[in-house]
Structures are given as structure tokens and as C-alpha cells.
Amino acid sequence: MEVTNVWYDKAWVEQWGHFIRKLNPDGKPAVNQLYGDGKYNTLYILVQAYRATKDAKYIQRFKQAWDNLLNMGKDGFVPEYIEQGKMVNKYDLDQQQTIFLDILVAAYEASGDKEILEAAENLGNRILQRGEKVMRMEGGQAGQAFLRLALARQKISRLQVAVGKAGTPMKVTQNGNRVLEV
Hints:
Oligomer: single chain
Strand content: 5-15%
């Protein structure tokens, strides 16, 4: 936790509203940017610190960092590259928004904070509207993030039905309402 606390105290730049990517050995900021996996890692470390300690300061900083990242971006997405609290436009948006979705769900699972779940649902909806260009498809990451969100929202069950032959029509209802018809 010592390294996490150094990061929490020294890498957060209040005036810019974000973490920086690198610290010098003396704990002073080495850069004024946040980019690449530094964005994911700084959020994720806050979730893990909260899991380990249950200290609310980590979830509060997580929420603050998340809100600031969204405000620095556009269209409800996090930018690829941030410098001194502003999106660097030539880099546009992070193309792997589903990683943020996964981290938001992890934060909700750890904290039970409904605002974080709502933030995850909102991001998920925006991702689905934008499509694959903001999803990390490698290794099934996007699908895994959406499944994790679905599981956080409600219990999911699997139903396996044997049908006589291919093309047999099927209708699924719940409380008299059609849920699926194929």
C-alpha cells in the first residue's frame, strides 16, 4: 500500500484534475501528461486500494478522476492523451473505451456505489451507439466487459432447449409478455 499511497498523494495533480503518468524518484512529477495505459492503471489502482482497505478516499478519488476524464474528452468518452488537464486533440479519443467499462464495473463490484454502476451503464450505452471503433475486440475484452456489466445489473441465467429440428420456431415469454421470438 505504500507505493499506492505515494501515487495517490504525489501523482494526482489537483489543478489539472488528473493523475500524471510518471514520477521522479524523489516523488515529484516527471511529466504533465496522462496517456495510454496510464489512464486505466491509475483508475484500477484506486479500485484495488479500496478493495484492500475499504478506505472511502480511494473510491471518492476514483469518482473524481472518472468525472474529470469524461469532462476532458468529448461525446461522453475519455481522451487518448491528456496534458495539463486538457485533451490533446490530435490524438482524439481513446479507442478502447471498453477497458474503462470494465474498470467501472470493478469499482461498482468493490464499492456497491450505485452512481458508479450508473456511470458504467451510461458508458456502455454510448459504446454500443458508437460501435467497434471504441471497443477493444482483442481477446474478447469488449464482450467480457459487457457481460460483467450485465452480471452487475442483474442475475443472468442460461437456458438450453432441445428442439426437434433446425428452423423450429420458438417463443419465450415472461409474465405473459414476449421476450424473444425466433
